[in-house]
Amino acid sequence: MKKRIIINGSSIKDIPTFYQEINRIFMSDENWEIGQSLDAFNDLLYGGFGVIKSGEAVELIWNNSEESRQSLGYAVTKAYYNEKLKPDSPFNKEMFREKLVALENGNGETYFEIILSVITDHPTIELILD
């Protein structure tokens, strides 16, 4: 039997509130939280800490997903990429420049779509967008 986890998409207004919701749901029994990082979110989905046990089958229901899709859409994603491109940023600027150009040209992923890709890379997680 799969563990059922529900994300409240109405709580997600931007990237920080996405991670607040993720920490509220996945890290409720921990005395620490994951940071605002797609890598950290990816690690969380493997299990072994938080509410998912290592390799555990999960049914992840994302309620109000269309609201989240809008909140984590083009504008938020563009701001995210521009933040990564600041002169003092330690990130791979060339990669983020390419991602920004793709987004501006209409064929790049939004932050919401990136999150969905991260989730679907985990075969033990069944994602249901509601």
TrEMBL record:
Domain Barstar (barnase inhibitor): 5-75
Superkingdom classification of source: Bacteria
Family: Belongs to the barstar family.
This protein's name: Barstar (Barnase inhibitor)
Higher taxonomy: Bacteria, Pseudomonadati, Bacteroidota, Cytophagia, Cytophagales
